[in-house]
Amino acid sequence: MRTKPMLWDLVILGSGFAGSLMAMIARSKGYRTLILEKHQHPRIVIGESTTPLTNLLLDEISREYKLECLQGLTRWSRWKQDHPELRVGLKRGFTFHAVPDKASAQHPGSWKKELLVAASPNNDLADTHWWREDFDAYLLEQAVDAGADYWDHSEVTEWVEQPEHITMGVQRPTGASEIQASASSAMTISKPSPWPDPQIDPDAW
What pTM, to 2 d.p., does this model score? Predict the structure, then answer.
C-alpha cells in the first residue's frame, strides 16, 4: 500500500551556509521547511572569507528577519566575543590577481594585473575567514532550532512537477521516502560554476 507523501512548504537541497540561512528566513516567515543533505555535518569544506558588503548583508538579514544569532558573525571582534568556540580567522584585506592560464601563473613582476583591497581599518571592524566546518554546522544548528526539519545522507532520486506541488523521491539510509513541496518553493542551493567563466576576459582588467 502506497503511503501518503510527507508535505512541506519549502524543501532546500543542500545544508551549506546558504541553505541554512534560507531555512532560517523561511522559518521566520512560518514556512514548513525541510533541508536535505547528501552528506553530513561536521564536514571539511573549502574556506570562505567575507568582505565588508558580506558583513553588512548578514547584519541586514539578521535585523530584517529577527535572526539575532547572526549578529555575532558580522565582524571579527564580535565573533571572537560571542562565539569563541567557532574557529575563525582575521582578515584585513585581499588581492585579486589575474591568471589567464597556467603558463602565466608565476608572478610577472608587474602589479598591473593586481587589485589590492584594504578591507578594514582595524581588528574591531575586520572581516573574517570562515572555518566552514564550524560555520556551516553552527548555522544548520540554528536552522533546526528555528524549527526546520533536517535529513542527512539523503539523495533526491525523483523529481516530478505538478500544477500545485512538486513530488520528490528521496533515498535515505532507512529507506525510500516520498515528499512534496509547493511548486513555487522548492529550490536547490548549489555550488557556483567553476572559475574561470568563459565570459570573463582577464585582459580586460
Answer: 0.78
